[in-house]
Amino acid sequence: MLIKDMADRCEFLGFYLIKNATVKQTADNKNYLDMVISDTTGEIPLKFWDISDMDKETYFAGLVVKIKGTVSLYREKLQAKVSKIRLATDEDGVQVSDLVKTAPVPPVDLLAIIDNTIASIGHAKMKQIVEFCVSRVKEQLLSYPAGKSVHHAYYGGLAYHMVRMLELADFVCKQRPFLNQDLLKSGILLHDLCKVEEFEGGEQGIVTEYTMRGNLLGHISIISNWIHEAALRFHIQPQDDVVTALQHLVLTHHGKLEYGSPVLPQLPEALALSQIDMLDSRMQAVEDMISASNETCVTSIRAIDGGRMYKLNLE
Amino acid sequence: MLIKDMADRCEFLGFYLIKNATVKQTADNKNYLDMVISDTTGEIPLKFWDISDMDKETYFAGLVVKIKGTVSLYREKLQAKVSKIRLATDEDGVQVSDLVKTAPVPPVDLLAIIDNTIASIGHAKMKQIVEFCVSRVKEQLLSYPAGKSVHHAYYGGLAYHMVRMLELADFVCKQRPFLNQDLLKSGILLHDLCKVEEFEGGEQGIVTEYTMRGNLLGHISIISNWIHEAALRFHIQPQDDVVTALQHLVLTHHGKLEYGSPVLPQLPEALALSQIDMLDSRMQAVEDMISASNETCVTSIRAIDGGRMYKLNLE
Amino acid sequence: MLIKDMADRCEFLGFYLIKNATVKQTADNKNYLDMVISDTTGEIPLKFWDISDMDKETYFAGLVVKIKGTVSLYREKLQAKVSKIRLATDEDGVQVSDLVKTAPVPPVDLLAIIDNTIASIGHAKMKQIVEFCVSRVKEQLLSYPAGKSVHHAYYGGLAYHMVRMLELADFVCKQRPFLNQDLLKSGILLHDLCKVEEFEGGEQGIVTEYTMRGNLLGHISIISNWIHEAALRFHIQPQDDVVTALQHLVLTHHGKLEYGSPVLPQLPEALALSQIDMLDSRMQAVEDMISASNETCVTSIRAIDGGRMYKLNLE
Amino acid sequence: MLIKDMADRCEFLGFYLIKNATVKQTADNKNYLDMVISDTTGEIPLKFWDISDMDKETYFAGLVVKIKGTVSLYREKLQAKVSKIRLATDEDGVQVSDLVKTAPVPPVDLLAIIDNTIASIGHAKMKQIVEFCVSRVKEQLLSYPAGKSVHHAYYGGLAYHMVRMLELADFVCKQRPFLNQDLLKSGILLHDLCKVEEFEGGEQGIVTEYTMRGNLLGHISIISNWIHEAALRFHIQPQDDVVTALQHLVLTHHGKLEYGSPVLPQLPEALALSQIDMLDSRMQAVEDMISASNETCVTSIRAIDGGRMYKLNLE
Amino acid sequence: MLIKDMADRCEFLGFYLIKNATVKQTADNKNYLDMVISDTTGEIPLKFWDISDMDKETYFAGLVVKIKGTVSLYREKLQAKVSKIRLATDEDGVQVSDLVKTAPVPPVDLLAIIDNTIASIGHAKMKQIVEFCVSRVKEQLLSYPAGKSVHHAYYGGLAYHMVRMLELADFVCKQRPFLNQDLLKSGILLHDLCKVEEFEGGEQGIVTEYTMRGNLLGHISIISNWIHEAALRFHIQPQDDVVTALQHLVLTHHGKLEYGSPVLPQLPEALALSQIDMLDSRMQAVEDMISASNETCVTSIRAIDGGRMYKLNLE
Amino acid sequence: MLIKDMADRCEFLGFYLIKNATVKQTADNKNYLDMVISDTTGEIPLKFWDISDMDKETYFAGLVVKIKGTVSLYREKLQAKVSKIRLATDEDGVQVSDLVKTAPVPPVDLLAIIDNTIASIGHAKMKQIVEFCVSRVKEQLLSYPAGKSVHHAYYGGLAYHMVRMLELADFVCKQRPFLNQDLLKSGILLHDLCKVEEFEGGEQGIVTEYTMRGNLLGHISIISNWIHEAALRFHIQPQDDVVTALQHLVLTHHGKLEYGSPVLPQLPEALALSQIDMLDSRMQAVEDMISASNETCVTSIRAIDGGRMYKLNLE
């Protein structure tokens, strides 16, 4: 049974991914596993009561399990309980990737689009720098999400976010020919690339944790360093305007100091990048939350002020 | 000579529009006219010294004049001085509209696009409401700007802003089919319509002043009233979801309470509208400021945080 | 026993109103009802353990019940437990209105004051508009509260808030004769009127929920629409200053953009209205919270910064 | 001629008060006096060109002068120019107080009301403390304004502000009998008292400057010290609740930390005090600005957000 | 066993201090004691199930107990459970002070340093005032912490904070001889002194509660009053600059209005005081939190923005 | 005559540095030079009327001139006027450096201290990185200021700021041995180093302008790049904790996102660095402003909230 279809007091059977698993003890000192399981349609808390010592050493985050269980309502939230559980075997033929929500476009196709976009960059130095940076994380782009829970939180979500932004940039550049299309596209390709240094668990398409290095530096400063490194590698002066421009775009893409950009957009393409990023990420967050919910009124959408969206059916 | 080409210590001759004209007195008690003149390429302060009583009754804002004069630098700003001046005559064949910057697309064409868009709205009640509101200001859409100085401050600027947003909306709806295209387009057509009640001088393509009614109510609340009126007119229940949705879109299009929206976006189309509005108005403000300046670094752009943009030529 | 008098480990018996009721399950999968009950003196959470299928279909929000139970302390909050429970019957003679806190003045008397105030408006058009709007919700004014929990959260609370503000306005106008008394009084009568479109459950004197329409538009914009409608109805030009002034007062009564007013007060009466509203609502919130508590230090008062009030007995 | 009636290009003759006077030099090195003069109806800048050495030693702020002069418009502001000037003599019979706007109620009457209010305080210790503090500045209450330019900026303005607030408090206490009337009235009498330590020039009914001590401590902390001193004087324990309560009221009367109150209102009377203070000071600021201007739209009112007020004549 | 060494599923035996103790009831109505116990190395929640009526009257905050118990993990936090418990007896020889973390320097030594510092103040009046104020709380300085949990939250923490700041001030004055060393040192000695009026439980080295007087006035205003009182006592004019300066330093030491200082620093020594206070309190908070935790990443540090600190071992 | 000693109506003669020079025209169309001149004691505006074409091509910012002139008061500010002016010649023997305020310690001595500090770094990789970065700007450290006008705005001001912070860090590390002294010192040496890429005119000890690259990237991100480059150069992994730590310190040294740090301090040494930076820069700004003014009350100090400082002489 898909998690999206689970309701109060139903029984279920199926394969799921363990997102979290912690051994805890009840007030009367018995061990149990407090877990969260997920599939492509959502996630749900799961209690596995009265576990054995063996169980504690068997079930960890990132593993695929087959579970028979029941669902109940607890503090107005659904929660599942294990009746039977075992690890998935090779014969089951169920992979992690089968259970993580995936970008609507296959990651390999996304990568192909990204490659084509790089190939289309006319400015030679710019192309070298972008190619250098993207090639370093090509593997990860097949799987990494763009965020933990706010937006594009799924397998290949990062590459998907890049590609959707490229489409938008393409259109905006047609509307506004004074924009340097090479620069804007390069900025999009680079801006979130170092999220791969911020996220743990990204190869599974999920973010289980932020890395220490990610917290201490942030993806914005790391990609700026990579651009610097690329320039050195290809004997481009770090003072060259093309280096400055690319670094400016990645540094400013959050749009405001209080969102973690150390400087404000001061090139038209930087402004365009931050606006397109905001448009795409917010709309996607809303689309994801709405499609994952059966309610008419979806709340707690962290990507937007107020956090509430209604679904309205205007017949 | 075009105003854009005026430089320190040059002489000029040409037709210009008076944007402001105030009679003042020098410290030694002589009258002079303190004016601002403009053409399609920019504006410049103009001093008309030692005026006669006749002069005082001749030159007013909104009139076209022929001027011979000189330019000098005063407190790091250019300023012009009248050598000779007279009102334009019919034989001169120069109209106000010749001297006001105009939207890149002729207003009649913009109106045609707007009409076609209305015609394309599939939802019958929605179309009635939008048609009612737009038809009320059709005349003004041929001339009104979208703002005083921040963005789209030119002849037909309001209609141009609407049409560019419609293009963006069209693209975004293709990317995100879950959006109600009728609703988003209607929101765009309506959102700034009542700026025609906020601006004085809009028929000339400029904003000389805000109206009292505009200051006391704001265009957001006035258009909400018009939607209500349209519903009554067509016997649509004001509680009908279509009325609520349209009003919600116009009320929320500034995106934040502190920008004057009394409620936050809570429909996906409302979020899309506010994002598209921000993207189009900021990019246009930057484009206009950059194209109007010969400097590499343009400052004081009120539409964006920091207010500074560089022009960078990546060869 | 009145809820106000319930203390740790006491037993109680009485009639109460169910404010909320949700079926939940214990960790070991048993159903129970998680409720909140109230009377005129306060409210308390109530657990009804081991319920039958029948119970689940019997007890809902808005119903009057007779309960025998016990009180205990749980996480520093009092909580009640059902020993015996049944629905109130006609013979019991207990109405919902007996269990909801009521404004200190009977609603019918409040309505009479409101009617008299309308009658006293000298400006003919203003009177027509106010009369039109108030008459539309006269029924609801007999019961609706002014808020969910912040201030005047009781039966007839909205009308009570209006009347107390009218008294204050009367006094302020005596102090400051330059104020237009008709306008200020009209503004008070109108400003919160459309809360009746925002609240669910208002006929019971409580707010169980906000309506979708209330969330999407807000009471401020809805009353502005009504004023517009009234003007149309009585053939008053919407551009007439009296319409603009009334709409300005209702639009600005929250006093700040970040509180949801789309424009700031720009008429003396608008400033007076927002100040009087703030004075009355905050003082009432404090008075209600203090009188409902036996503590010397009352905390979590949402209407005021800091949220804490001491009761001090200066002998 | 009254300053209020001066217009562009008129001549005037009359007695005025010098508010500021500075010797300056023109670009070509001639001395002149740059002054501001005022009467009860307003103020205007005044230039006195080509002054003698004698003139420089004759005209200072705070003196009454007889001036013949002319008015002109300079940078959209009216400005006067001296034709003839001399100091007022005893025979002229014009006092400073004739030229400073005065509270609508004679200061001696205000003081009488203040005395009666003190006499009406029932709580003995409270009365002692209030009496001690008020008596220390009784002289100054006959003249001091309540502010430099924001509100009640006139002769006796401080006492007038106190009396108007006492009236409001009286009314609010009738509406809300749970308030301790003695405490609220005492708070009003004390709250702004130490503005007399903040202002220079207050004996003339104007604020020419803030004192160093006023800037370093603020009137809020100084009055708190005085209350402490009064307690010591009358052998009341500083820990006595009545001392704490009075100090709390004065410390919190600005209502918010960012307005300079070190703690937030936590007694109902403290909340009432800050609300009544805000209501009275804002309304008075608006009333004063409106009555001093002939414009329909008055701008730059510093006491209110937005700073703009319209005068609307609803016939 | 020290609390710092307690881990999941271990057993422990030892003496501890009860920080909080509340009688609660389980869902099935049984009484238990919900406590927090502490020793010099940290604190941990403790459940004492199935208590007797006697138990309820025996165990209170502030008492020393001997406990045998077990530790388990509950919602990712460690929590202890009582197996056996009794009050400490005289024979046990364990004092409260043995179980409260103490400043690294013995309080008596801290007091000696404070005394020496006072003795070193050259300005006679200043010395009198400081001596008067410090002597009033000398007893409490032996035990009071500087805060509840943010910084220096331990026995003698307040005096320790003062002494560390004095060291820093000494160094800064050497770097910047233009500073008045007497004034800066006096400011440090006085600035937090009246926290002894804000805290309950300070004689035990802990803060169990804030006093009503502390909440209503704040330590900043109380010490200002004491300085005023000292001036009166020694016949120093309250207007004397030395009084103003000392009061200014204590009033401004929080550095910003929104942190509760009613005025901003306007003397160099006031700026130095607020900077040194911030430096010492934040560094100490971080040092305390880091040393009390075995984690590499310590979170929820309330004294700093973001609240997270990593321990990094650069080999 | 030193600029500090210039007063209203005095005559002066001396050598000065031209800080700014712009050709302007009077209202009656005559050219003049609008300049600012400075020496080690301050700066003053200077008008050079009726200039020749030769003059326009002679006097530019950065040149030393000999001037005879007079001083007058204009709009309450002192302003100088040229009587006679000529460029300094070699025989005059006056250098730019003679006219720019210089750090109290000779720059070569500051550099020696910086070198010694680098030599004292025990951690080998850290030393390599710091040495690499500092050596790149050693030349500039002899002259560059630390800011345009806020703090340390003088010849060698940047090196002086570094050295004073090193002294403070030395002391703080003694107080708090848990701090990694190598890391803190390295952070201080690096944190502002790339201001040399932000400032134009720094070789003269002044900031005439910000560079485009400085505005687009900011010194914080540039030094982060240099650290990355140093790591590559010395074959240190960019992921090495020492690289991360150094980058973290420079990225976070502004202490808050809204001050332009993209991440918040999360290492104790990063917190110490931002606190020490704030302490030193604010105290220096105040010391500089106070010593440069003869007023008792110095205003407009941009480095501090409120901007006002009093000089108080406690006899």
Report on this structure.
Six copies of one chain form a homohexamer. The first copy, chain A, is of the alpha+beta class. In chain A, 41% of the residues lie in helices and 19% in strands. Chain A has eleven helices and nine strands. In chain A, the strands form three sheets. Chain A has a five-stranded mixed barrel. Chain A has a two-stranded antiparallel ribbon with strand order 6-7. Chain A has a two-stranded antiparallel sheet with strand order 8-9. The first copy, chain A, is elongated and about 65 Å long.
Largest interface: A-B, 44 and 44 residues
Head-to-tail CA distance between termini of chain A: 31 Å
Low-confidence stretches of chain A: none
Mean pLDDT of chain A: 91
Overall tally of structural domains of chain A: 2
Question: Considering DSSP H and I runs of 4 or more, what fraction of the residues of chain A is helical?
Answer: 40-55%
Shape of chain A: elongated
Give, in order, the helices and strands of chain A.
EEEHEEHHHHHHHEEHHHEE
Major sheet characteristics of chain A? 5 strands, mixed, barrel
Going by helix content, strand content and strand pairing, the class of chain A is: alpha+beta
Oligomer: homohexamer
Strand content of chain A: 15-25%
Q: Biggest sheet of chain A: strands side by side, in what order?
A: 1-2-3-5-4
Domain OB (chains A, B, C, D, E, F): 22-87
EC number (chains A, B, C, D, E, F): 3.1.-.-
InterPro entries (chains A, B, C, D, E, F): HD_domain, NA-bd_OB-fold, NA-bd_OB_tRNA, YhaM_exoribonuc/phosphodiest
Keywords (chains A, B, C, D, E, F): Hydrolase
